[in-house]
Design a protein that fits this description.
alpha+beta, three-stranded antiparallel β-sheet
């Protein structure tokens, strides 16, 4: 049984594709300042955050994790590096979730006004 003509999937019209492509080109060719303004981005802060990496050091028999400007006690060296890495990974994931939550709250409060 063939589908009725109205139920067939039709490709997007050439005109709609042209408009979408023009909007994309206008946004990407506008320069970094305009792009950051349009998308409400703080590019320098993003670059700084991406360049910061968490790391673990051993200090007097204790694994200490460093994330941004915070220090975290990850455990004794006798427990092994694997447990310290797991804890550090969990801390990084929690930090990312809280930052995402804060960003979502920020966007929600700005979209209501």
């Amino acid at each position: 049984m063939a589908w009725a003509r109205s139920h067939r999937i039709r490709p997007r019209s050439r005109c709609a594709r042209d408009i979408t492509e023009r909007e994309t080109i206008a946004t990407t060719n506008s320069g970094p300042r305009k792009f950051a303004d349009v998308h409400n981005l703080d590019i320098p802060a993003i670059v700084v955050r991406l360049n910061r990496k968490p790391f673990i050091r051993i200090e007097t028999g204790i694994f200490i994790g460093y994330l941004e400007d915070q220090q975290y006690l990850l455990g004794m060296t006798e427990a092994g590096i694997a447990s310290a890495v797991r804890r550090m990974t969990r801390l990084c994931e929690e930090d990312r979730q809280y930052r995402d939550l804060g960003r979502a709250d920020f966007h929600a409060s700005h979209s209501l006004s």
